[in-house]
What does this fold into?
Amino acid sequence: MTSKTTRREMLRRLAIGGAACPICMALVGSGSSRAETAGSSHGASHGATKHWNYEGETGPENWGELSAEFRVCEFGFEQAPVDLRNSVRAELKGVEPAFRAMPLKVVNNGHTIQVNCEPGSQSRIDGETFDLLQFHFHHPSEHLLSGRVFEMELHFVHKSAGGKLAVLGVFVQKGAENKAIAPIWASMPTEAGPVRETSTRIDPAALLPESRRFFRYQGSLTTPPCSEGVLWTVFHQPIELSEAQIRKFAGLFPVNARPAKPLNRRFLLQSL
Ligand SMILES: [Zn+2]
It folds into this structure.
């Protein structure tokens, strides 16, 4: 038995042995509204309740070993995120988000800050309609732009009536204070726990960049179980958050970004 096998075996036992993640257990126990189901579709609360995070034995390098359900994290060929470089320009159907203002429902799920969206916000992506389920944040960015890491990245997670997932990714760079993010930042829980419902209204559309130029590829969830078949659209133009706003999130999540995965045989397309 090689040391690699030994380590894998140890991790396998750890996974099967049921060292359940307390954060995940808490979330599983907190009921299952539509929005929380939405969370699980992006791996935010995962049925297997296996603890995972962004460093060490339970970090991204080992996600595939933690649970049988996470195998594709290690063996998948269409994983996200990727480095957005060597793209092919193509005539793609535009992305048309149609987000509505909504009451703020925000949760710290132990892996990120997530805003659960009430029904009514949608996007037309590649000619298909997708409902906006939730959006959440990563620090630093998960995608790279020709090797460049951004301060943060925002993911708008969508699902079609047929169950297909599509994510709109938005880079965040340091700059002016972002007024649209302010009410979310003011209410975000500093510790993992149940969804916090507020009467504050937020406007997710204000978190999109002006330019609709984008990259497009077929990828996966960037958190366990890393399920493939996710249609990715990452906007070229970043939005801005102030240094203080970025620091506030980074204080809670110093690193919650999966490293970039190889493109393999996929095409990375860029809108004209
Ligand atoms: Zn994400």
User: Anything to note?
Assistant: The chain has one domain: 75-271. Residues 75-271 form a domain with the Carbonic Anhydrase II fold (CATH 3.10.200.10). Residues 136, 138, 155, 222 surround zinc ion (CB under 6 Å).
